[in-house]
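If you are new to this repository, start here. Below is one unmodified record pulled from the training split, so you can see the exact layout before writing a loader.
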Amino acid sequence: MSRTAGTWLEGVRLTNGDNVQAVRQLFEAFYSADEAEMDALIGDDFVTHGPGGGAGNAAGWKAMAGQIARGVPDTSTEIDDIFGAGDKVAVRYTSRGTHTGELFGVAPTDGALTTSGIEIYRIESGRIVECWGQYDMSELFTPQG
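And here is the target side for that same chain:
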């Protein structure tokens, strides 16, 4: 099917306001392991989809944030791209830090660690209710040496 500029977006409402801001806030809360702020942003039925099933639900999401905070306490995350359309927001990001604690079953290396990911969030009634993610954690799981 061939599409021409100006027609393929018909019926899609581009969003770069409240939904995008909510996802930015979720990133800040996640990488600072701020459970109260995460609770304010995610819906009661929040569900994640990703490698190995992802974090699963809100409790798993918050537990993962805590595990990252303990494993890489100096994590710095940069949002490389973020945009929204309709009820969804897409984010591409890169995280960097020093692997000083156990992380996802991997013993600390005290070395620099860079991971990246792409996530798509769905927002409903002002709350983030769903997340699909794909991640590159090859530096973490590849033996160094």
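Two things worth knowing about this chain: The mean pLDDT is 87. Residues 14-141 form a domain with the Nuclear Transport Factor 2; Chain: A, fold (CATH 3.10.450.50).
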